[in-house]
Structures are given as C-alpha cells and as structure tokens.
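User: Here's a protein and a ligand (nicotinamide-adenine-dinucleotide). What would the complex look like?
Assistant: Let me lay out the input and then the predicted complex.
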Amino acid sequence: MVSYRMLINGQLVDSPQTLDVLNPATEAVLATVPDCSMDQLDAAVAAARRAQPAWAAQGIEARRLLLREMIRRIEPRVAQLSELLTQEQGKPLTMAAGELKSMLRFMKGLSEQTLPESVNEDSAVRRSVTRRIPLGVVAALSPWNFPALLSWWKVVPALLTGNTVVLKPSPMTPLTVLSIAEWMVDLFPPGVLNVIVGGDALGPRLTSHPGIDKVSFTGSTETGRRVMAAGASTLKRLTLELGGNDAAIVLPDVDLAKAVPQLFWSAFANSGQVCVATKRLYVHRDIYQAFAQAFVAYAATIKVGPGLDASTQLGPVQNKPQYLRVRALIEHSRQAGHPILFEGDIPEGPGYFVPVTVFDNPPDDSRVVAEEAFGPVLPLLSFDTVDEAIRRANASSYGLAGSVWTRNLNEAIDIAQRLETGNVYINESFYLSPNAPFAGHKQSGFGVEMGEDGLLSFTQPQTLMIRQDLF
Ligand code: NAD
C-alpha cells in the first residue's frame, strides 16, 4: 500500500495516529493517512507565519514562476492521478480525468492573474495610491466531492498574492491532494505550502487558530456557520462557498431531445454531489408529461457502478454518512406517499450505491425539494406561469446558482435576472471559469472565488497618501 505523508515546513511527515481512507465502491480500506496532531497543526501554522514575509517580498512575478513550475510537475502525472481520484472519490474514470483537467485549467488561469493598483488622486498637493497586499496565512479547507479541483483553486491565488497556506482537504478524500503536495516538497521555500489531514477535531482547531488570517472554506452551510463563529475572535477574513439547492426552469419551447440529456447530467453528474447541480427541476405544465417521459427514458439508459469499470456512468455516493442521509431522504418521501417516476438499478454487493431516483411533483415543503440532497435524487415539479416558477425557485435559503431553459433569449435573460443566485445559466449549467466571479448568495456563501474579485479576496488594500507640495 502506498504511504501518504503531510507536508509541513518543507518536510514530508507522518503522524503517530492514522486515519483509514475507504474506497466508496468497495468499502475496503484504500490507504491510511496521518491524522495530524495538534502540535503538528501548530507547527504548520508557525512555519507558514515564518515563511510569509520573505514569500511576500519575492514579488508576484517570482511567485508566478514557481506556480507555473507546480503546474508543469502535475501535468504529466494526470493519468496516474485519475485512477487514484476515482478510487477515493467514487466518480467514473472519465469524470476523474475531467476534474483533473479542470483543476489544471483553473490553476493555469488563476496563476496568470494580475493585481490592480489604483491612483485615487494625483494633484499638485497630494498623490494617493492603493495597492493590494497579502493577508498573511490562509487556511484552505475543501470538501470531498471535487477534492483536487476545489483544493488547488484556492491554493494558487492565495500563494500568487503573497500569502502562505495551510491546506486541509476532507479526511474522506485526501489522497490526490497529498500526492500533489509530495511532488512540491522541494519547490516552495519551507512553510509556504503546508498540507495537513486529520479527523473531526482538526477543522475547528485550524479555523479558530490565532495564527490564521483568512479562511477559504468550501463545504456545507452548516459547517460554514461554525467556521464563521470560529473566526470571530480574531476577525478572520472569510470566503465561504457553501451548499446550494439550484432550480432549473424549463419553458415549453425547449427542444426536448437536446434539453433532456443536458438536464439529466446537470442533476446527476458525480451522482448529484455537485454544489451547482440542478436539485429542483421546474418544468412548464404544457410539456411536463412529455418531458417526464423523455427524462425517464434517458435515465433508464444510465449505468451505475464502480468508477473503475469502463462502462460506468455514475459511481457511488462518496461516504457512508452521506449514503445514509440520501437514502433517508428518499425513504422519507416514499413513506409520505410522494410518487416516484423512476428508480434505477444499482450493483449488488458492497459500495455506497444509491439508485437514480426521480420524484413526480412532491410538495414544495417536502424534504426532497426543500433540502440539498447532494445525491442522485431529483424532484420534477410542474408550473403554470413564469412568475410562479420564479417565486418557487427563489423560495429557498440557498442562492448558489440556477438555470433557465428556453429558445427565447429575451425571456431567458428576464427570468435569469430575477433569480436570487450568484450564478445564473441559460441553456447550460455547471460552467465555471477562472475569470468569472463565483459567489453564493443568501446562505450559499460569503465572499467570492475566481475572477478579479476572487483574487482580491486574498489581499487587503493599503493606501499610500503622499503630500507632494512639501518635498
Ligand atoms: P463539510 O462542511 O462537511 O466539510 C468541508 C470541509 O470542512 C472538510 O474539509 C471537513 O473536514 C471540514 N470540517 C468539517 N467540520 C468542520 C468544522 N467544524 N470546522 C472546520 N472545518 C470543518 O462538507 P462536505 O460534506 O465535505 O461537502 C458537501 C457540501 O459542500 C455540500 O453542502 C455542498 O453543496 C458543498 N459544496 C459547496 C461548493 C461551493 O463552491 N459552494 C462546492 C462543493 C461543495
């Protein structure tokens, strides 16, 4: 079995305690990883603090060169990483390769960003200039659904802007991240990049640590609230990318043959474990029956199985607690008598497999509509008027993303602009870019990732005011 170590102060280190990482397709132990002790956490934060002034003083172009080298070291190893990512996360191999390709695309895009400098006043009396300087030490925490992508798209802008980093991936999916960290052991000055992994006690300690200046967190809204509370005592800067319950609104003029497969994947890709997945699908009553029929016919063609099987299109849910939660959500609706339009097959034997499950018009206040399922379950909901669809889509404490499906561009833009979400898609979903700000509204988050706003969120402004007439 390959051994995995943490990266602390430029050294690869073990820990007296270990954690098991399971393969969700087999429930067998895939690897053991160190369980970071509190002393090791303190050492990682202290190393990051020591390294930060010199790292900031290097200047952005010198840091950019090292980030480019980081990308160069990962690129030839993507095939080897895909298999590991499938084994730890569960997603099919093609999807794992897709995540890693996206990871590289984001790392490249984000590492080429530049920091603005603004001149606020330039008169005979005074010159006032604002530049952006680093915050200090950034703690980056990522979830288990896209462990590679969501970890490294935080690290690159944090380092580029002159911060040092302590990265903590989810203990459910740390292997891809630890592998990449190992390849970087001699790249950055010691302490600039630290990667630790540990059990339930580690996140709260890291996010309340007095040596951390900013927390960039992706995970559930519930944990996000804890992270916010943990940062209060030292006024940590926060970026919280949290849960979502994205609505798709489908108007009667769509081309069903094209829209149905796209909407299927927008809901079920990665077995529904995508923050910006479609989690409520509102379809106009005029086409509801035809849409539902086509959707079910398409769902019946999908093969669920272990991600390493070449024919698998959807893998298992990533971990047991999530598996039990999604199963409970489905059972709750079944017990309540909500009609099930479709329930797919799953392989026999071990593994956290959940059948693709589609509900037919459950009530808006049912758990399967109101909660973020984060699994392969979707309610299909009919509506009569656009105003009604928008009202129901917005009746959520979440505000991550949403989508509108129609051939009428003006109507699509009108609806899109009335949705209370950070991203609104027209005739697509999922797409994110290193250049476009991604910012959850309402309880989907706080702060921004990507785009110039995302980069600036790893910095603070410093304004220099020079009285010119006294020189
Ligand atoms: P989670 O909140 O359980 O865990 C996320 C990370 O926080 C993990 O590294 C975990 O170990 C750590 N953590 C757990 N408890 C902590 C605590 N008290 N203090 C500090 N850290 C703690 O989330 P998850 O179950 O891994 O991921 C699923 C959730 O993430 C879903 O709600 C999904 O919508 C959300 N998500 C959001 C985005 C986004 O960009 N908005 C992207 C992906 C996933």
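Summary: The longest helix spans residues 38-57.
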